[in-house]
Amino acid sequence: MNKPLMAKATAVWLVDNTTLSFKQIADFCGLHELEVQGIADGDVATGVKGFDPIANNQLEQSEIDKGEKDPLHKLKLKFNPASLGEEKRRGPRYTPLSKRQDRPAAILWLVKFHPELADSQIGKLVGTTKPTIASIRERTHWNINNITPIDPVALGLCRQSELDAAVQKAAKKKAADGAVMSDDERRKLVSTEQSLGMSSEPKMPTAIAGLENFSLSQSEEDEEKNPADYSNADSFFNLPHDDDDDEDDDDK
């Protein structure tokens, strides 16, 4: 579904100037219903100036009237011929100024934990250039010693679904090339949902195969059947008998 320009500012205007429900505004602006409620409570979008969708040719007044009368009515974005093809525009991902300094940390995380990803895939996920990725791969970046790897999803640079799709694509390419993957690499190449559903128990190495049935239960059972007699100190310490001392004692 297409969203209006300046969606959060549009939601601020609709909250202040209409009686539409939070769900109607959230569906129209592509926001979460709780986020719209936070705007109404003053906890979200503090200081954001409302953006009039009617004056900016994005919404008809008749749509607002219908929505105020019927809470189930969904607002429809006004058709704008100039907006055709905007979503299909190709180019690097736009990264806000406030998050651009986080891109090296995200690149280092992807290079470290998903080395199977190509530079072009990392560039699309994070919105960076191949020279920057190459400098971090080769550890020639000017600030490489101060960069800490951080998940790009946690930084808000990409979505988890986009990262999973890129990893799955890399997995198919690696399988087509016939490369042999280890268990750790195979776990990295699956989606988040599949990875969380995997068993966390480590597999027994083949070098010690056959020891899984080894236990101390047999020795414990033998001790119960034939308990050792520790009442005699000599038998306990297994002290040797000195015959010479015994003969000396007899002579005396």
Write a structural description.
The protein has 252 residues and is an all-alpha fold. The chain has 2 domains: 7-83, no CATH class; 90-198, no CATH class. Helix content is 48%, strand content 0%. It contains 14 helices and no strands. The chain has helices at 7-17, 22-29, 33-41, 61-69, 103-113, 119-126, 130-137, 152-155, 160-176, 183-188, 192-197, 217-225, 233-237, 243-251. Helix 1 runs antiparallel to helix 2 (22-29).
Concise account of the structure shown:
This protein has 252 residues and is an all-alpha fold. It contains 14 helices and no strands.
Low-pLDDT parts are none
* Helical content (DSSP H or I, runs of 4+): 40-55%
How widely separated are the two ends?
114 Å
**Helix run count:** 14
Characterize the overall form. elongated
pLDDT averaged residue by residue: 76
| Strand coverage percent | under 5%
Gyration radius, in Å: 35 Å
Main sheet record:
none
- How many separate domains make up the residues? 2
Structural class: mainly alpha
**Total strands:** 0
- Helix-strand string: HHHHHHHHHHHHHH
Organism: Albidovulum litorale
Protein name: DUF1013 domain-containing protein
InterPro entries: TrcR
